[in-house]
Each structure stands twice: as C-alpha cells, then as structure tokens.
Design brief:
The complex is a heterodimer of chains A (about 120) and B (about 120).
Chain A: E1 2-7, E2 10-14, E3 19-27, E4 32-38, E5 45-50, E6 56-58, E7 64-68, E8 73-78, E9 87-94, E10 106-107, E11 111-116
Parallel strand pairs in A: 2-11
Antiparallel strand pairs in A: 1-3, 3-8, 4-5, 4-9, 6-7, 7-8, 9-10, 9-11
Chain B: E1 4-7, E2 10-13, E3 19-25, E4 32-38, E5 44-51, E6 57-58, E7 67-73, E8 76-81, E9 90-97, E10 106-107, E11 111-115
The chains are: A mainly beta (about 120), B mainly beta (about 120).
C-alpha cells in the first residue's frame, strides 16, 4: 500500500521568496513520485516526477524536488515565487512500472499556494 | 499539446437518476483512461482504469454496477453514475495515457456532480 501526506493545506509566500511545499510518502516498494499543479478550471499538469534515477529532479516552471529516502520525503521547491505560481499542488505516488505514464497514482490532499505581491 | 476534455463541467441531478460523464482525448489516442473522484478537501481517489475495448478494472470498494465505465474508442471513455444519490456528489476527474513520446497521464478539468 502507498500513501502521501502533504503538510499544510495552504501555503502563502511573498513574490520573490522561496517556495517550499512538503510531501512525505509511505510505500512498501521503491516508489515513483510526482508533483502536479492545477490552475483554476484546468486539469492537473505534471510538474516533475522521480522514477529512481537522479534524486534531484528538475521540472517545469523552475520547480525542483529532491527524493530523500531516509526522510521518506519529496518536497517541492522553487527559489523565487512568481504571481503565476498561485495554484493547487498535488503530490502523488505510484508503484514502479515499466510503462511510464500508465501508473496508478495515489494523491495527497493538495496544497493551495498563494503568492503575496 | 495533449488536451483532455470532460463534459459536462458540472451537472445537477435528482436522486435516483443516472448521469453520464464523458472524457475525451482531443488530439491523441488514449490506450488507457483513468477515473478519479475527489471529495471536498480530500485527495483524488482512483476509481477505475479502463483500456480501450476491454472491461474496466475497478479499485477495491468501488461499486462497478453503480459506476459504469465504457471505453469504446481510443478517444472517448464514459462514466455513468447509475441511480445517483446525494452521497455520490463529488468532483470526477479523468486522465488519459497514450500520447506517443509522452510518458505521462494527461488530466481533464473535472466534472462537478451534485445530486439533490
């Protein structure tokens, strides 16, 4: 069984400040881990994913996340927040499969990121 | 790009009626489509996986007779909520996989179902 916990349902940061969204996972097998972003009235969009290669994963829009097995964490960061980063962010986990993209995803409850001008 | 649409975006129905939600991959052929349900302030929960031309695989605890899934073509999957009740009110989201060169699922914008 797999699960993810996102700490903080709401996070507010000032424009230009560091963005840190927390995600901890639980998995009985080496996991695949994902971060998705959802803008209002749009579908979830993949930001980045970890699939057992490099532990530091770089994604779109300047976001990155680091897989830390010892901490069972996959926190999402961005050095400098932009107003356009305001959205809902979801962390997800799946069991490893060979057919990338066909994973059965288990999502966290989401974190709403607000950017303060 | 890869676009997945859902129709309708929101629907209100009376208890006991059936509601059909469509999920379409607009610019690619989806070999697999996933259906999720999201309750307020909760995470997306996978309901079922459907592959074109075959029966859907339901997750544990999901009633297959209540949530009928059909994936009749490579661009369309439908979810029918039969004899809907207020507890079925939720946000239903689909995703589609199969775009050549893209190892990821593409998500629709979701359908808000309210059962009165």
């Amino acid at each position: 069984a797999q699960s993810v916990t996102q700490l903080g349902s709401h996070v507010s940061v000032s424009e230009g400040a560091l963005v840190l969204l927390r995600c901890n996972y639980s998995s009985s097998v080496p996991p695949y881990l994902f971060w998705y972003v959802q803008y209002p009235n749009q579908g979830l969009q993949l930001l980045l994913k970890y699939t057992s290669a490099a532990t530091l994963v770089k994604g779109i829009n300047g976001f990155e996340a680091e897989f830390k097995k010892s901490e069972t964490s996959f926190h999402l960061t961005k050095p400098s927040a932009h107003m356009s980063d305001a959205a809902e962010y979801f962390c997800a986990v799946s069991a490893p499969i060979s057919n990338f993209g066909n994973e059965k995803l288990t999502f966290g409850t989401g974190t709403r990121l607000t950017i303060i001008p | 790009g890869a676009v997945v649409s859902q129709h309708p975006s929101w629907v209100i129905c009376k208890s006991g009626t059936s509601v059909k939600i469509e999920c379409r991959s607009l610019d690619f052929q989806a070999t697999t489509m996933f259906w999720y349900r999201q309750f307020p302030k909760q995470s997306l929960m996978l309901m079922a996986t459907s592959n074109e031309g075959s029966k859907a695989t339901y997750e544990q605890g999901v009633e297959k007779d209540k949530f009928l899934i059909n994936h009749a073509s490579l661009t369309l999957s439908t979810l029918t909520v039969t004899s809907a009740h207020p507890e079925d009110s939720s946000f239903y989201i689909c995703s589609a996989y199969g775009l050549a060169g893209y190892n990821e699922q593409f998500f629709g914008p979701g359908t808000r179902l309210t059962v009165l």
